[in-house]
Design goal:
This protein has helices at residues 4-23, 30-50, 71-83, 90-124. It is an all-alpha fold.
Amino acid sequence: MRGPAERLVSLTRQINELSTTVASRSDVPADVKSSIDSLKTDLAALAPKLTPPPTGRGGGGGGRGAANDSLITKVGQAKTGLMAGMTPGEQTTRAYTEVKSQTPKTITDLNAAIAKASALSSRLAPLNLTLTVPSPIVLPAATPGRRPSNGQ
C-alpha cells in the first residue's frame, strides 16, 4: 500500500504529463482542460504538507522555514523526541500535537483530490488519455480512551 506522499507524487506527475499532452490537442473539451488545471492546483497546494523535505546539507534549512509545513518533518520530530528516552520537551509535544490535528484534514484533502482525479479519469478515457488514480486513504476510526478495568 502506498502512503500519502507516494499517491500525491504519482498523481502530480501524471497530471503534469496530461497537462502538456492536452495543451497540444484540439479534441479535448475546454471543461476537461480546466478540470486538469484545477486538479493540478489542488495537488500543488497539498505538496508542502506531504512532500518529504530535501535531504543533505542546506536542503531543508536545518529544519526551519518551509520544511516545517511538511507533516513528514513534524512526524520525524515527534518520533525522534518520543524515542529519545527522556521526558518529551515542548518542541516534541508541539510537533506531536500539530501532526495529530493536521493529518486527518490533510488526508481528507488528498482523498478529495483523488475523488476529483477519479471523475476526471472517466472523462479522459473516451479521449484515449489515461489517468491511473490511486485508491483513497482510509482513516482509522477514532478510538475512545482506555477505561480502567478490574476496579482500577
